[in-house]
Description:
single chain; mainly alpha; two-stranded parallel sheet; 2 strands; 3% strand; binds zinc ion
Amino acid sequence: xxxxxxxxxxxxxxxxxxxxxxxxxxxxxxxxxxxxxxxxxxxxxxxxxxxxxxxxxxxxxxxxxxxxxxxxxxxxxxxxxxxxxxxxxxxxxxxxxxxxxxxxxxxxxxxxxxxxxxxxxxxxxxxxxxxxxx
Length: 134
Ligand SMILES: [Zn+2]
C-alpha cells in the first residue's frame, strides 16, 4: 500500500484519497453550498454513491451535482498525479478553483427554461445560463 501523495500521512485507499484526505474533504466541504446540499455529519462517500445511483434526473441541481462530482474526482486525481509525477503542488483552494471553473464552463454551455431553480443556480455560481425561447 502506498502512502497518500496529498497528505503523505495515510494509506492511499480509494475512500481516503477521494473523500477523507484533508485536501479532498476541504474541497467537498467548499462544494457543499455550491451543490445546494446541507449535509451535516454526512459520510461523503455514501452521499456520492447516492447521487451516482439515483436515476438520472434532469433538474438543474441534479446536473450541478453530477458536474461537481465528476470535476472534483478529476481535480483530486490530477492533483495527486501532479504531486507524484511532476512534483508540483497546488493548495486545496487552487484545486477547488479549477474544479469550479470546470463546472462553470459546463453550466454556461447549457440552455434552460426560466425557473426559480435556474435563477438560484445562476446566483450561487455567479453565472448566466442561456434561456430556451418558448
Ligand atoms: Zn491523504
